[in-house]
UniProtKB/TrEMBL annotation:
InterPro entries: AcTrfase_PglD-like, Hexapep, Trans_hexapeptide_repeat, Trimer_LpxA-like_sf. This is Acetyltransferase. Belongs to the transferase hexapeptide repeat family. It holds the Pfam family Hexapep_2. It comes from Hyphobacterium marinum. Gene3D superfamilies: Hexapeptide repeat proteins.
Length: 231
């Protein structure tokens, strides 16, 4: 029995890429794109209908279509989280994509709406929460857990038995020592090397990383500016 067609939430680069990967490698056909009503600026996107959210629920109802939320990490993944919840509360099943060109094991567990691209090395005992995005070429060490709505860029190394919280962002080439605990809402910048636990809301820069705690004014400014949290 063929899987149900998808509606993709989003109308920018990541949404276009999600369609490509789902159709070229995931065995799923995309029927349309949708965004919130106020953000509809055209009738189509990437050659498919672009419909307002209120219309999408009628034209592509959750009893006949699945959905995938394909948005960026802006607002430190809070928009991705909000739209994930919006779609799930409307009754949609949120499809995950795992690239066939990655390596994993049968005991991998994951939530809904994950997006995992090529050349991952995912070792035994790994768990991904809901709405986790892993861009290309990461190493996720054995027994590690990645929390809901977290975003990994490329070529990140997570050593074994790490615990990573919700809504975190990890930049290209970041590295984590084994057995670390990373709190929620952390920003680990490109090339940062993490050798100790991070509190919720921390910012980590450099090698070895300079860490600013959640109440540090400089760290708060860096995080807010990068993710446009004050807009």
């Amino acid at each position: 029995m063929a899987e149900r067609e998808l509606v993709i939430f989003g109308s920018a680069e990541i949404a276009e890429l999600a369609r490509f990967y789902f159709e070229q490698d995931g065995g799923r056909k995309v029927a349309a794109f949708t965004v919130d009503d106020a953000y509809v600026e055209a009738d189509n996107f990437d050659g498919l209908p672009l419909v307002a959210w209120s219309e999408a629920i009628r034209r592509f109802p959750p009893d006949r279509y699945d959905m995938h939320v394909a948005l960026s990490y802006m607002k430190l993944n809070r928009i991705r989280e909000a739209k994930f919840n919006q779609a799930r509360e409307a009754g949609y099943s949120l499809a995950s994509y795992f690239c066939s060109k990655s390596v994993g094991w049968p005991d991998l567990t994951h939530g809904e709406n994950c997006f995992v691209l090529e050349n991952q090395t995912i070792q035994p005992g790994v768990s991904l929460g809901d709405n986790v995005m892993l861009w290309s070429g990461n190493h996720i060490g054995h027994g590690s857990m990645i929390g809901d709505h977290t975003y990994f860029a490329s070529h990140i190394v997570v050593s074994g038995h790490c615990r990573i919280g919700k809504r975190c962002f990890f930049g290209v080439n970041a590295t984590l020592r084994d057995f670390l605990t990373i709190g929620d809402d952390c920003f680990v910048a490109m090339d940062a090397s993490i050798t100790r636990d991070l509190e919720t809301g921390s910012v980590a820069l450099g090698t070895p990383a300079t860490v600013f705690g959640p109440e540090d004014e400089k760290g708060r400014k860096i995080r807010n500016n990068y993710f446009k949290l004050d807009d």
